[in-house]
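User: For my dataset I need records formatted as: sequence, then structure tokens, nothing else. Please produce one.
Assistant:
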Amino acid sequence: MKPLAGLTRRPALALDVDGVAVPLQLRRHPRARRITLRLAQGEEGVVIVLPPGVGSEEGLRLAQAHAGWIRSRLDARLPPVPFVEGAVLPVGGDALTIRLAPDERRGVRREGSTLVVGGDAAGAPVRIRNWLMGAARRAILRQIALRAALLPRLPAAVSLRDTRSRWGSCSPQARLSFSWRLILAPPFVLDYVVVHELAHLRHHGHGPAFWAAVGGLGVDATAARAWLRRHGSALFRYG
């Protein structure tokens, strides 16, 4: 990769992001007005562009402060995982390997760590997606049932969608909606998103009373929110 005009390459460093060493490139640009971060093109790592007079330590501190953003952007670069023979899917905290069984009746079933997909291979991706949506619905409804006694009212409806804009939502009519891709996240993350929306049945905003309600429903909001910031974008590479 050719260096940008006016930039001076500094020795590469590494930033520890959730146990992964992410290469850093410190560069100085005479016309830069502030420190900027961007992914290195055509290679792994992050470029830190420094304006004149700004020390490398300040650039490294900015990278550390934005470690979650860096990880999410790197996750988004991961190759897609289509629903094909041999693909490994994280489902409810377990790794399931897809095995196509064209000679069997149409359907999807779990056998240990294998997801067996019967029927023609062309229709397998749709059947797998539908199976995952069913697994997500069961997990979400199970969490709602566990906390039903603590709720001011039950949801009027629960639906699943595939949107990048939000993991869950609660309408004024108490209709809850969730991303089916939450089944691909660790269970504590799915549990948190469900509890987050259930808390909106009592509080519409995100003030102290809302977060107190989330905590009272028994989830680790801090850990789950951190996981979603760091890894959430990677869930969209499946399928």
